[in-house]
Amino acid sequence: MDRDRIGEYDALVLVSLVWFLGKFVRYLFPPLFESIQEAYGVSNATVGTAFTGFMLVYALLQFPSGAVADRLGPVRVIVAGALVAGAGSLAIVFNAPFAALVAAMVVIGAGTGVHKTVSVRLIARVYPARTGRMLGAHDTLGAMGGVAAPAVVVACEAVREVRADEPGPAR
Question: Using CA atoms, how far apart are residues 151 and 149, in angstroms rounded to an integer?
């Protein structure tokens, strides 16, 4: 495949990788509910409510993101959403109070909530003769983020359990 042919798919690859990461983060939380409950001493209902807040913000931003993209352009909205979601994702790696985790989840929901509606428009504009095929590829890669997230959680938990079972340094 020559460079021009590869370059033909730049927009699809970039937008689809952002969608992969958005779906990855979305499906990362449910397998972590038990660990979050243990770490923060909160109930399943509390963690579920936090996740509902994440998804609610995601859902509520679908319409306004399309309207903003009509005004500012889809690339700006997608980039802004990716930066917001990235900032929220970075915030969850720190050992912070539960309220900070919930705030980070809401920020991630805001960042990922602007993506899908706007990316469909961008893909349709860049690939007008192949919109259906390109949207299929886009959604497939996004769905793979949802497949990968629980697998990554399982792998990380397995490593954590093995390390917890290893004897510590001699004293």
Answer: 5
CA-to-CA dists, residue 38 to 2, 44, 51, 136, angstroms: 52, 10, 16, 39
Q: Which of 6-20, 21-35, 128-142 is the least confident region?
A: 6-20
* Residue 148 near residue 23, CB atoms below 8 Å: no
DSSP tag of 157: H
pLDDT of residue 169 exceeding 90, the answer is no
Taking CA atoms, 158 is separated from 52, 103, 151, 165, in Å, by: 27, 28, 11, 11
- DSSP string across 49-111: HHHHHHHHHHHHTHHHHHHHHHHH-HHHHHHHHHHHHHHHHHHTTS---HHHHHHHHHHHHHH
- pLDDT score of 143 more than 70: yes
Mutual angle of helices 98-113 and 33-40, in 10-degree steps? 150
* Domains of the chain and CATH, by start: 3-165 (1.20.1250.20)
Cβ(24)–Cβ(147) below 8 Å: no
pLDDT averaged over the chain? 91
pTM score, whole prediction: 0.86
Say how many C-beta atoms besides its own lie within 10 A of residue 109's C-beta: 26
Mean pLDDT score, 21-49: 95
